[in-house]
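Pipeline run #58 for the internal structure catalog. This entry was flagged by the ingest filter as a single-chain record with no existing model, so it goes straight to prediction. Upstream metadata was stripped on purpose; only the residue string is passed forward. Reviewer on rotation: M.T. Logging verbosity set to normal.
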Amino acid sequence: MKEMKFYGTALPGLEIEPYSGKLIVIEGTDGVGRSTHVALLRTWLESAGYAVLDTGMTRSVLAGRGIKDARAGHTLGRLTMQLYYATDFADRLENQMLPALRAGFIVLTDRYIYSAIARAVVRGADPVHGALPRRARALGAVAGRRIFGGTHTDP
């Protein structure tokens, strides 16, 4: 078991403890097969006897529907959308990912904080000093394995 590491500081009130699960992140642009890879990997891991949770951007119970509605209607400004994505991520991290990691699951996520940061920068946030990228990094647990368009990197 490794102790959980975070970019910056962890969520307020979160006990930093060893987690027996693994976090695997699949990143990439639209249409590169992220969802396909997650589905195939989940099937393979479950057939090998592993407990698996898969999650991804806009799947938060708290913010997911609102993000989808806002994108469809283009009704929110850039900062509001960035905050919506940060809310979605924080909700999934606190209520889905960390409990699953604590219970020993392998967590597969279709996108992670890297996509939220990239979207914020594209929408005009300062990549170094911008509030959202810094806060998003502070929320994110360091992934055990990151996969970008078919290649992987280790932390």
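catalog note: Strands lie at 2-3, 18-19, 22-27, 52-56, 106-110, 145-148, 151-153.
catalog note: Residues 131-138, 145-155 have pLDDT under 50 and may be disordered.
status: ready for reviewer M.T.
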